[in-house]
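Researcher: Can you fold this with LL5AMS7Z in place?
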Amino acid sequence: MTTRIEIGSISVDQGLHAFINTEVLPGTDVSAAEFWSGLAGLVETFGPKIREALDARDQLQDKIDAFLGENPNAEADSQIGFLREIGYIEREPNDFTVSTDSLDDEIGRVAGPQLVVPVNNARYALNAANARWGSLYDAFYGTDALSQSAPLTPGKAYNELRGRAVVQRVRLFLDETTPLLFGSHVDVTSYYVRHGELHAKLECGRTTGLRSPTQFAGFAGEAGEPTAVLLRNHGLHIELRFDRTSAVGKTDKAGVADVILESALTTIMDCEDSVSAVDAEDKVHVYRNWLGLMRGELTADVPRGDKVVTRRLAADRTYIGTDGAPFTLPGRSLLLARTVGHHMTTDAVLDSGLDEAPEGVIDAAVLALIGLHDLRSERATRNSRAGSIYIVRPKMHGSQEVALSDGVFAAIEDMLSLPRNTIKMGVMDEERRTSVNLAACLHAARERVVFINTGFLDRTGDEIHTCMKAGPVVRKGDMKTTAWIKAYEQRNVAIGIKSGLTVGPDGHGQIGKGMWAMPDRMEDMLEQKGAQLRAGACTAWVPSPTAATLHALHYHEVDVAAAQRELRHAPAAPLSELLTLPLAGGRSWSEMEIAHELDTNLQSILGYVVRWVDLGVGCSKVPDMNNVGLMEDRATLRISAQHVANWLMHGVVSQEQVDSAFTRMARIVDQQNEGEPGYRPLTANAEGPAFMAAKDLVFRGAEQPNGYTEAILHRRRREAKRRDALEATSREDVGFAAG
Ligand SMILES: CC(=O)SCCNC(=O)CCNC(=O)[C@H](O)C(C)(C)COP(=O)(O)OP(=O)(O)OC[C@H]1O[C@@H](n2cnc3c(N)ncnc32)[C@H](O)[C@@H]1OP(=O)(O)O
Ligand SMILES: O=CC(=O)O
Ligand SMILES: [Mg+2]
């Protein structure tokens, strides 16, 4: 039973209240009275507006359902006419340019990878913040990125053959990225600095330098025998590290022990789809980690063999410049925080009617309040050197909802006495009504928007839900080649560039692309993910620090600014393409294909909910039917659930088929999780909250607003938490009686 504190018109969970008053407010110059009365005002002002916006979503979807139900084969033009009539398609704003200022260089000035991490996992969050720099040797050695090399033997001694292949591959990268005037990095026996220039002595006895001497950015140690040499290409740094005593360095002609790449320039600390946070207790945990990051004090104990090491935030890196003067580079990724969307509510705060308050508003207010610790910090290692707080807004539908977020941010700035537009906004372009009205959405936040990112996973879920009534959709794997998704990706870039979101010295923000959702498939990522930059993005999402380091190679290879210049006159793909529904049409599938599609979807749903609902883990690597570990989060769950719901609605599969596939997939998921600490087998808990969540997601999927999964997940997770608490109490009772 939670205790609550009444403050004006709101009722606040005691745990949140104590956390804010004792841990957050000291050092911010904001008094408890100012914060709580401000928060009450936000809830009273924006609660009703958000409810109105959610009603508007439902009304539009009802009209679309009716229209598509009656006109399943409607031509794009007739759909467009209808969507304009109901206000789904908005009026385009006149030409405008985004004017966001006080930006850090990592946003829009330099192109580089964007990492995402569930912020409630301190160990991962610290790792992510420190993923600004990553070992390229480790990234190649420890993954499948060099499939042709000698096999990796986990836990075994260093495989020299594999190591040699890594070194060779990295030298090739150096020759391509920072070539020498003559000769190859392969043949260098020593690097040294003289008169501010880098010299490289070759095996043949001759000395060379860089073909572009300005790529030399600095060094560490003695000029004649540096411990590190810093190079720069497309604004990103590469550090050659020398140590002739190390295992790798002593076998290397030039004594290179490692090559470190500037990797995750930015990281999204996620409070949304990669997190399971269903009540005030969970929310405090999420906020506390953000506080630790903003104060620079977060730590986590990480087991390493039979020891435990304490992980902390990395320090800045110091070098000597070409002019002989020392300088530093940030040791950490620039951090952004992603709130939940408008449709979420939280029991951490209740409004005057004792209804849960809008969680996205509470998130924004608390995250920004915590951000003050960074803004007011004297530390050189502060997060935003430009004095901004970066908050990402997911799942907004259309420009009125972006304007609503803009209003929330402005009201928070007033509450915290911050200059207007200190809080920057990242806009996830991941709902259909936002993609359709992207220019209007950008316009609504033109003074604070810092990115538009194609969250294609949520966007796919929304696409399926929006056209639920029109007919069966194509198979999940075929979505990637449908007309709407191509138009969506292209329009995001075209509209972004037109609005001034181009990378460069006066960049105003990022055009970002979506997640690489196969964390173990690094060779495939290396082959495919460069295409996102050639298509005009200046950042793209990666799931892990290693992926960030490997993806950094793409930014060395592609001159993103030039790619964007080439695209600047490309018109946005027409709405008719964006609005082409991903329907199967006359296509039919064999029974085997249908069974495979169903199995795949149900297995990924079950594999995800067993961890989300029973264990409170928001993002998981779930092995698919071919045992490829896929990143599953709430957005991928939305796709799978909506897909099955759609096929059920149109009779492609029957309820009996789904039930029996569920039973078969439950056995597979149980096998895949065998031995996992705390795992509750589905086969033994068919009525348990995890299995019930999966069934609700599918059988009640069509009726979920916009196909969202949160309402079901949250209810079932709360049920699981109550069960766990009861079990813990009865264990204590037994222990007490026995003792
Ligand atoms: C649609 C969307 O919204 S996408 C955005 C949401 N998705 C995400 O945020 C994905 C983030 N990624 C993750 O959560 C994880 O990488 C997963 C769940 C996909 C895989 O996790 P695991 O199975 O634990 O990964 P794996 O065992 O391969 O690696 C674990 C190691 O990598 C690190 N790691 C993995 N992912 C991350 C990450 N995103 N950030 C920082 N470190 C990470 C861990 O810290 C750990 O290293 P450590 O032992 O030194 O602490
Ligand atoms: O948030 C990202 C997505 O793809 O959805
Ligand atoms: Mg998303």
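Model: Folded with LL5AMS7Z in place. The radius of gyration is 26 Å.
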